[in-house]
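Give me the fold.
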Amino acid sequence: MRPTEVAALVELDPRMIIPVGTCEQHGPHMPLGCVTIIVERMSADLSAEFGVLLAPTVEYGVNVETERGFAGNASLRKKTLHRMLNDLLDTWEATGIREFILLTAHEHDPHLEALSTVITSEARVRAVDIFGVDVSDLLDGQSEHMHGDEVDTSLMLYLAPQLVDMQLAQDYMMSRDELRRYRRGWLRVPRASPGSIGRPKLATPEKGRAIYERIYSKLRERIFVAPSPET
């Protein structure tokens, strides 16, 4: 978009969606950027429906540490992601943006902390993890979202099936306590894991469509349709 087009859109609606992805392993069957692909598609669909400005995607996030290396992984430190977003939002706020919607699909506490602690002068910041939406009733082998799992793999089979090789999918489960510590950054992805956690072998494109539509519906209702708390 040209500057005049951006200015005209901001006059109509001073909000901006910023997709924040990651570049990390999600099992041997999935591309490194699957989180980025999922959140970018969700952001683009919401932007198109509501006419809200869509920023270029931030393709790197704070990755979970692993006990063994995975080729291609690229992670930012929490403070690096935080500072980068602070700088970006500061410049966009100066051009009239009054609400930022940081959309991510990465349940890792240090990553979410980097998003949720961004500081602006006056503009509102909403950090939204799309996996905060409950999809447990749509799953067959899990009770919640994990990593490169039944949820992520189903979404990718729906959104970009050409990038998924189900013949390489491997199931690997953690206990509830291990999963809690993993999300908080206290536990590395174990060496025995293929890079994913959960049951990706149970993924289907039909399940992915149902999950996507559930999440999309909740986000549009709670963030884009519901009145602002300030009104």
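The first strand starts at residue 15 and ends at 20.
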